[in-house]
């Protein structure tokens, strides 16, 4: 995820920051991805795993990840267009 728009240097209690999925990913679910600055200076938690890779969203295979001796198929997302060579 990345902050949508230009981040500020500081925020006050009650302000919200909206995030967007990075290129090659899209929103998993509906709505916006926002966090809110609390009175104690901490931020609310964003939704868990709010973005999904375009390949997974299209019903493709989970992204491969490397391990010693070769590749294994896992559920780690990878940016659109990633390739493996070994």
TrEMBL record:
The keyword Disulfide bond applies. Keywords: Disulfide bond, Sushi. Residues 1-53 form the Sushi domain. It holds the Pfam family Sushi. This is Sushi domain-containing protein. It comes from Galemys pyrenaicus.
């Amino acid at each position: 995820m990345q902050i949508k728009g230009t981040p500020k240097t500081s925020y006050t209690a009650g302000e919200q920051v909206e995030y967007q999925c990075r290129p090659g990913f899209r929103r998993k679910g509906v709505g916006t991805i926002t966090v809110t600055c609390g009175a104690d200076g901490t931020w609310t938690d964003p939704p868990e795993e709010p973005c999904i890779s375009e390949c997974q969203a299209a019903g493709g295979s989970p992204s491969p990840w490397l391990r010693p001796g070769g590749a294994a198929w896992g559920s780690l997302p990878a940016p659109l267009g990633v390739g493996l060579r070994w």
